[in-house]
Design goal:
This protein folds into two domains: about 140 residues, Creatinase/prolidase N-terminal domain (Creatine Amidinohydrolase, Chain A, domain 1, 3-Layer(aba) Sandwich), CATH 3.40.350.10; about 250 residues, Creatinase/methionine aminopeptidase superfamily (Creatine Amidinohydrolase), CATH 3.90.230.10. About 35% of the residues lie in helices and about 20% in strands. It has a six-stranded mixed sheet. α6 packs across α7 and α8 runs antiparallel to α9. The longest helix is centred in the middle third of the chain and has 30 residues. The N and C termini lie far apart (about 50 Å). The relative contact order is 0.11.
Length: about 400
């Protein structure tokens, strides 16, 4: 935990403090930001970092060591009456504190504190603000080493995509049976051989299965691939080492020498939406204009809606990327949630608009890394559907 940086961020946000609270390890963010890992959390603990001055701890006497390792004076309690009295004293003179709370649950990834605890803090005359922007600063910004791991993983992930398409081409060219599951498992083996890992296997989907954004084949549900099929590969992984972050892309292909017009027409709309979102991020960063996650979603969704496919874009435009595939930074979302967090330097997110028709679904996904005065796509950008049988 970097106390000075946290306190500087609190002052910048005009907050009097950041109140951390947990019970039964419900708030993983708190443990990561504070850098603690107590053996047991069966009793409530509270940790207040003020914008100025020394932090304060409040722990149960049975688990008095739960906040060891972080600075500050410690108070202990046993009864709920004592707990509330000491909480009130801890928060004296504080008018506005941040907690892992999100108004109206707009950002559920940060809304980890229960409503009753928020009510308790408010009962002391203290306003509770969302810690969402603070969390992004201390959870979502990458180090130089993290960015390097992302770029290294990206080269291998792109190679895995090419491997998947080539495997389909070779099998169908040789008139051998091949299905979604076989392609998926070959990429899993590639990951293992090349030092990559992921929480889930790559998504491999054919035709109407590609209309389900989270479809993943199993050995029993795998659909065979044939000439004139449409194929979607969503491939994500990170290096198998501490601190590594994910690389996450989606590419689409057509099993043929040339791509049928119905697929090209939809892909071109998705590509336009993707590029509009990328352009908005880059221009905003270059011009120093504040930009929020929901605005990027609006840019991509507006293109797809204008072309008449709005009802078929059924998920957010993008998600934060970190050590977890879905990180704790701003999401590009004004659909599933309204993410009004500012996009800040040092963070990375996906841009992945899609159109999901009953017969097939098209998605194009890239990763965008934000720099101090610019933003860049960190991998290759798909410009047309891959004609799989024409690959060399």
């Amino acid at each position: 935990m970097d106390l000075q940086k946290i306190q500087a961020a609190l002052r910048d946000a005009n907050l009097d403090g950041w109140l951390f609270y947990d019970h039964h390890r419900r708030d993983a963010i708190a443990y990561r930001v504070l850098g603690i890992n107590p053996p047991m959390c069966s009793r409530r603990w509270y940790y207040l970092i003020p914008a100025e001055g020394e932090p304060a701890k409040l722990v149960h006497r049975i688990e008095s060591g739960n906040l060891e390792g972080v600075p500050g004076a410690t108070e202990q309690y046993s009864s709920w009456v004592e707990q509330r009295e000491k909480m009130k004293r801890m928060l004296e003179s504080k008018k506005r504190v941040a907690m892992q709370y999100s108004r109206l649950n707009d950002i559920p990834y940060v809304g980890l504190v229960d409503a009753g605890t928020v009510e308790l803090v408010k009962s002391f005359g203290v306003e509770v603000a969302s810690s969402a922007d603070l969390v992004q600063i201390f959870e979502a910004r990458w180090s130089a080493e993290a960015l390097s791991s992302h770029l290294e993983a990206g080269k291998l992930v792109h190679e895995a995509v090419r491997l998947g398409f080539a495997m389909i081409r070779d099998a169908i060219g040789a008139r051998k049976a091949i299905g979604e599951y076989e392609v998926q498992q070959e990429m899993v083996r590639f990951f293992d051989t090349h030092g990559l890992e992921a929480d889930d296997a790559p998504l491999v989907a054919v035709n109407e299965n590609a209309s389900n954004p989270h479809y993943s084949p199993s050995q029993t549900s795998s659909r065979p691939m044939r000439v004139n099929d449409f194929v979607l590969l969503d491939v994500f992984a990170k290096l198998r080492k501490p601190g590594a972050v994910y690389f996450d892309i989606t590419w689409v292909g057509f099993v043929g020498e040339s791509v049928a017009a119905q697929y090209t027409q939809v892909f071109e709309v998705v590509r336009e939406a993707r590029d509009a979102a990328i352009s908005l991020v880059q221009q905003s960063m270059r011009e120093g204009r504040p930009l929020r996650g929901y605005q990027v979603d609006d840019a991509a969704r507006g293109v797809i809606t204008r072309h008449g496919y709005g009802e078929y874009f059924v998920h957010r435009t993008g998600h934060s990327i970190g050590e977890d595939i879905h990180g704790n930074g701003a999401n590009m979302d004004n659909f599933e949630t309204r993410d009004d967090r500012r996009i800040i330097p040092g963070t990375c997110f996906s841009i992945e608009p899609g159109i999901y028709l009953p017969e097939f679904g098209v998605r194009s996904e890239v990763n965008v890394y934000v720099e101090d005065h610019d933003a860049r796509v960190t991998g290759e950008i798909q410009q047309e559907i891959v004609p799989i049988m024409a690959m060399r």
